[in-house]
Amino acid sequence: MLGLPFLPTQWLPGNPMVMIGTLVILALLGGELAARGLRIPRISGYAATGMLLGATGLIPPPLTEDLRIFVDISLGLVLFELGGRLDLAWLRRAPMIAVMAIAESAATGALLYYLLAVYFDFPAAVALIGAAIGISTSPAVVMRVAADSSAQGQVTERMLLLAAINSTIAVLVLTTLVPSLAGGQEGGLGQGIGRPLYLLVGSIVLAAAMTWIALIVYRITGKREDRQLIATLGLVVLAVGLALAWKLSVLVTLLGLGLGLRNFDRGGHTMAIDFGVVGQFFYLVLFSLVGASLDLSTLLVAGLAGAAFVGVRFLGKALAVLTFARVTHQPITQAALLVVAIQPMSGLAAVLAYDAANMLCELAASVAP
């Protein structure tokens, strides 16, 4: 360049750091516009901003490019928090809530499978994957909206617990189902069984090992919130990195880590960490990147099926929650609010859909939309 090799070759670099920084600033402004001008949650503004940037080509598909690591870390932090919501002692004291959560997942999955396989005539593999993804409630949405609105009470606690249980079920089902389908197509019975077994068992073992390491670290640092916050962020990033390096499930590993610290810390070393501003940053990154990953052209392909999917999913969750309202000692008005509260789908569903399509390449055009 005019004999000046020290000058940059491009003035608008496209490396991940520049894209993430730009995305964060623009998404933050979009969230404020949504909250102040439209009176809707900031997370909707984050996702809409990401969607616009993705549609214009300014941000590449983040689930397939270098930006995927930011999605994994952000979602990993969300799932770590979600795992910490699974209080096994509470479920032992109130087993019917656990039964309700399982019934809600089963009813939703069965109705969605019937819709996709019978009514829309999708292949059985696509219908199974779609139904499994539809079981989950977006943990990021419900936790962020609850935090932003300072929501407390029975509906909020049950919402978070149901989101934790049905998301865990969805992740575990897909962790075994998708590799089984992919392995069966690629390498016969051994691959079809060995691959999901390695993925599931390996992820659980990694989560248990990370829990053990975390408890040692917490015992040494003591119950100081600042130190435990730093340690927890480091542990989450380490767990994500190890899961990716060993080709395990980031989702199962981080869910297991959060659950393990909540339920198996006999010495009481773990504090209830408030991720505060740091957590908000990762939520912003997650929602904006997931928004950027959405392809608006798929509305032409799957718009009708998507609308039916939303309606049937609502019906499945409503049937179970309202049926169990009396058994779980919840007023019907609160149960109705709970039905609405567990409807959101977002980052977790998008990542699950992408990963399923990535393993089953020939079904990508059917699964992702």
Could you explain how this protein is built, in words?
This protein is mostly helical and 369 residues long. Helices cover 76% and strands 0% of the residues. The chain has 15 helices and no strands. Helix 8 (154-221) packs across helix 10 (250-263). The chain is globular and about 75 Å long. The N and C termini lie far apart (45 Å). The relative contact order is 0.16.
How is the secondary structure organized here?
Blueprint lengths: L15 H22 L4 H14 L12 H16 L4 H6 L1 H25 L4 H12 L3 H10 L5 H68 L3 H21 L4 H14 L12 H18 L4 H26 L8 H10 L5 H13 L4 H4 L2
Helix pairs in contact: 1-2, 1-11, 2-11, 3-9, 3-10, 3-11, 5-6, 5-8, 5-12, 6-8, 6-14, 7-8, 8-9, 8-10, 8-13, 8-14, 12-13
Provide a short characterization of the protein structure:
With 369 residues, the chain is mostly helical. The protein has helices at 16-37, 42-55, 68-83, 88-93, 95-119, 124-135, 139-148, 154-221, 225-245, 250-263, 276-293, 298-323, 332-341, 347-359, 364-367. The longest helix is centred in the middle third of the chain and has 68 residues, at 154-221.
Name the descriptors.
globular; 369 residues; 76% helix; mainly alpha; single chain
Count the E strands: 0
- What's the gyration radius in Å? 21 Å
Proportion of β residues? Answer: under 5%
* Total helical elements: 15
Average pLDDT works out at 83
Helix content: over 70%
Shape type:
globular
User: Tell me about the biggest sheet?
Assistant: none
